[in-house]
Amino acid sequence: MKNNIKSILGLACLAVFAIGCEDDFLDEQSTGKIINANQLVDGVLLNPTLGEGSVTGIYATMFTTETGGTTSQQDFGQKGYDIYGDMLSSDMALSVSTFGWYRSRITEMQAGVDFTQQENYQVWRYYFRIINQANLVIDGLGGNDFVPENEELRHILGQAFAMRAHSYFYLTQFMINDVEASWNSETLPIYIEPGFIGNPKSTTQEVYALMEDDLTKAISLLDGYARPSKTQVNQSVAQTILAYVLGSRRDRWDDVVTLTNNALANTTASAMEADDSVSGILGGFNDVASQGWMWGVDLNEDIALGLVSWWGQMDAYSYSYAAFGDNKSIDLALYDSMPADDVRRGQFQNDPEEDFLLQPLNKFYDSDRQLFGSSQIVKADYIYMRYEEPLLLNIEALANSGQEGLARTALFNFVSTRVTDASFVNALNGQALLDEIYKQTRLELWGEGKSYLAMKRNKATIVRGSNHLFAVGQPIPFNDERLTFEIPQQELQDNNNITTQN
C-alpha cells in the first residue's frame, strides 16, 4: 500500500515554497526567496521532479500540523477543517467531551460570532497559505495567462490552478453565510500573485469568476496527466471541484451534470462496495489504495503524524481523543433515519450497553483495530475525495435541473447498493426527491467533511439529535451567523483595506 513520500516533506520547503516554512505568512515579507520563472522552467526541464516537488509543497501543507498558524491540536491541515464542517453541520455530534476540544467554539458555535477566536484565524491562514503557495508556482511558471509548451509544466500549472480554486472554494463556504444572497457583496480579497499586500475585499461574484476560470484552465492543462500517486490533483478531481463550485451557486445545475458525468467517466476509481474489503464501506477508510478513493494521501512513518491529526481526533483504534473521552458520533436523528437493513448502520457502534456509542468504529479505524492503539499514524491514510462524491452530486444536479426521471433512476441504483429494497425511491419527486438525495449524501459521506457543503447547497435547516451536548432540538438554518467563520482579528489589524466583517 505504502508509497514512499519522504520527498514530500523534503521538498515542502523548497525556495519556491519558502512561505510554507515561515512563522507568519500574512505579512508581505514572509513570501521568502522566490526563484524567477526562467529558473523554475529551466530547472524543471533539466529535472522534472523539481516541478513536481514545487506543487508537492502544497499537498504537504494539506496534512501538516500548525499550518493554520496555531499550536492547537485541532490544527492539522485539510482534515481538521473537515471536522469543523462536519460538526457545524451537526451531522457529527461531540457526544462526550472530556478534554474540551471543539466544544465551546465549534459545537457551541461561539467562533462564528467572535472574530477573536483562533478558529477564524486558522481557517483564514490555512487557505490563504495554500493560495499563496499556488501563486508562487503560477508566477514561477510564467503567470496566470501563460500556457507552457512543455507537457510536464502544463500539468504542474494545472495542479496549482486547481489548488488555488480549491482553497478559495472552501473560503467561500466557511466565510460567507449565503453565497447567493452575498453575490454582489464584497466578501473576500483576491490574490493572484505571490505575497499579501493587503488587498480589499472583492465581491462574491468576482471570487466565483476566478475559481471557475482557474478550474477551467486546470481541467484543460491536466488533460492526459497520469499522476504518480493519488496525492496529486488530476483532471477528474479538478472536474469534481468545479462541480462543487458551480453547485454551491445553485443556478448552474446543467453544468454540474456535465462536469460530474465527465469526472465519473475520467476517473479510474469506482463505487465502494457494501462490505469490509479495502474498497468497501466497512473497510476502515484507511487505505489510499482503495478503489473508491479519487484523491488522498498515503501517510507513513516519514510524515510522523500522531495524536495531532484527524485520526488522533476521530479513531478509537488509534491513541486518540476519541478513545479516551472526546467522542465524535453520528447525530442520533440521522442514524435513526436509516432503514434497519441499511448496511451503513454497521459503520457505527450501536449497542447502548457498550462504550463508544454511535462512534464510527467500523467506518474509520487503524488497520490494527486495537483500541487505544498506536500513537503513530502509519497504517491509516487521509481521504480527500471518493467516487461517490461526483456520483451523488450528479444525482442532485439532475434533480435540480428538471431531469427527475434520470435522478430517480440513478438514486434508486445507488440506494440499492446500501439497502435491500430501494423501491421507495420510485415514488419520490419534487422536494421529497431532493430531500432524499440530501439525506443519502449525508449518510454516505458522514465524517468525510462534505456534510457542511451539502447543507449550504441545499439551504438546509439542521436540528440536532439528543446525543449533542448543546442546542438539542433547536432548528438552525444554514445561513445562521454562528455556522460561518469571521474574518479574523489579525487580518483586520494588518490589512487597512479590510475594516469590517462580511
TrEMBL record:
<dbReference type="InterPro" id="IPR012944">
    <property type="entry name" value="SusD_RagB_dom"/>
</dbReference>
<feature type="domain" description="RagB/SusD">
    <location>
        <begin position="360"/>
        <end position="498"/>
    </location>
</feature>
<keyword id="KW-0732">Signal</keyword>
<keyword id="KW-0998">Cell outer membrane</keyword>
<dbReference type="Pfam" id="PF14322">
    <property type="entry name" value="SusD-like_3"/>
</dbReference>
<feature type="domain" description="SusD-like N-terminal">
    <location>
        <begin position="107"/>
        <end position="243"/>
    </location>
</feature>
<dbReference type="InterPro" id="IPR011990">
    <property type="entry name" value="TPR-like_helical_dom_sf"/>
</dbReference>
<keyword id="KW-0472">Membrane</keyword>
<dbReference type="InterPro" id="IPR033985">
    <property type="entry name" value="SusD-like_N"/>
</dbReference>
<dbReference type="Pfam" id="PF07980">
    <property type="entry name" value="SusD_RagB"/>
</dbReference>
<protein>
    <recommendedName>
        <fullName>RagB/SusD domain-containing protein</fullName>
    </recommendedName>
</protein>
<comment type="similarity">
    <text>Belongs to the SusD family.</text>
</comment>
<dbReference type="GO" id="GO:0009279">
    <property type="term" value="C:cell outer membrane"/>
</dbReference>
